[in-house]
Amino acid sequence: MPLLSSTPSTFWTGPFGDGTHLYRPAPDVVLQQKYPFVLPTLGYETNALMPALNAATVEAHYRSVHASHVQALNTALTAHPTLHEYSLGQLLMGLRRWPEAARAPIREHGSAHANHALSWKVLAPGAATATAPNGRLGSMITRDFETVDACKAALREAALGIEGNGWAWLVKTATNRLAVRTLPNDDSPLLDGELPVLGIDVWEHAYRRMYQTQRAGYVDAVLARINWDVVGAQVE
Ligand SMILES: [Fe+2]
Q: How far from chain centre, in Å, is Cα 56?
């Protein structure tokens, strides 16, 4: 079922009007959540990402940072019952349409909820080995980056180049191409009408407990731990 099937086709204009990719089913169920939003299960133990990320790092990031954004989003939207019928994906894609008082918390906490949910999902836990991109994602990477290594290198360079807090993103653009973006703070690519495919959180809270200031070590460890099958589902 299309994500926006119950929404009049004229509802989305501007960059969304011809963005057919936004009408595709949302592969991430978190984007289909409506108020009250809930913290999704991690799907693995907090120590299952060793040696890339230790339990203390995952525990604090998931149970404190991610959970607090979910709670803050719910608190903010309590005062906006007219928005309760919209999914998280719709709230982010249509940000400028909502009451002004709701925009900042949706942008901050709604983005952070969506971003973190995706970031947990795309990491391979336990003994699972990171797979190689295949299917549609593999074809798109070949078309837009030539090789997987080039795609990873572009993501790595973007992640290391971010000043301050932000995320490096692999996105699907409105023209159905893959591209690397850097976005500040927790801004979701959905705010710009682009579909998040893979995100790397470079806030210090994501890595400082293990890597101190060595962001490169963290980024390399994460990129080596990606479950490309899950990432691929984002573009199917
Ligand atoms: Fe984070």
A: 22
